[in-house]
Amino acid sequence: MQFYLDTANLDEIREAASWGILSGVTTNPTLVAREKGADFKSVISEIAELVDGPISAEAVSLDGEGMVKEGLEFATWHPNVIVKVPSTTEGLKAVYQLARKGIRTNVTLIFNAAQALMAARAGAFIVSPFVGRVDDTGVDGMQLIREISQIYKSDSEITTKIISASIRHPRHIIDSALAGADIATCPFKVLQLAIRHPLTDRGIEQFLADWKSRS
Ligand code: E4P
User: Fold this and answer.
1) What pTM was computed for the model?
2) 215 residues of the chain, pLDDT tens digit each
3) How many C-beta neighbours within 10 Å does residue 12 have?
4) Best probe residue, ligand 1, of 185, 186, 188 (max atoms within 8 Å of C-beta)
5) Is 28 close to ligand 1, i.e. is its CB under 6 Å away?
6) Fold of 2-212
């Protein structure tokens, strides 16, 4: 399973990229809006300079035609740009049209496996099931990843990748990998939490103390 960073913050992307673990970046309108005053095209172009992998940029149109128009523009910004569209009938139309033009899409806001299957059939490059937001409703979000993974694996025509999205804690990363996700897109904070362990810290302290005490 690969790691993407779920952010539009360039400092976080620069730092995580330096760890050698980053295969791509996902953004959404909320994450871009957090970077006050940043121009969307500049943000996406700068991210694409920092990370050599798929960079998701989300369309904000509600109609398929509008999404296609936005997607065609995003695709001129960098060859690694993936057009993110919502899991709606208009989104499916956009995926279908963009795929015919060779433009890759990420179908987002997926909350059931049928949506993921329809996105794949329309030609989506990636789907983004929102694990954390499903958990928030009291339902096991990881079951969504298990179901989509099983459905995709049982159909040899499907090459669509699964991004486990709306990741909230390190356990989500482990369970996503076990459930068959191709990618986990994580907030920077969750990646920081995932690498830390108190026993690792204690082990370092002990090794250093013993090293200093040698005579
Ligand atoms: C996915 O691409 C989304 O940007 C993201 O994972 C949403 O996560 P949230 O539920 O923490 O907003």
Assistant:
1) 0.95
2) 999 999 999 999 999 999 999 999 999 999 999 999 889 999 999 999 999 999 999 999 999 999 999 999 999 999 999 999 999 999 999 999 999 999 999 999 999 999 999 999 999 999 999 999 999 999 999 999 999 999 999 999 999 999 999 999 999 999 999 999 999 999 999 999 999 999 999 999 999 999 999 97
3) 18
4) 185
5) yes
6) TIM Barrel (3.20.20)
Q: Ligand 1: distance of its center to the CA of 131 in Å?
A: 9
- C-alpha to C-alpha distance for 172 and 178, rounded to whole angstroms: 10
For the chain, the structural domain boundaries read 2-212
Residue from 50, 62, 59, 60 nearest 25 by CA: 50
Which residues are part of the catalytic machinery? 84
Q: Is the CB of 133 under 6 A from ligand 1?
A: yes
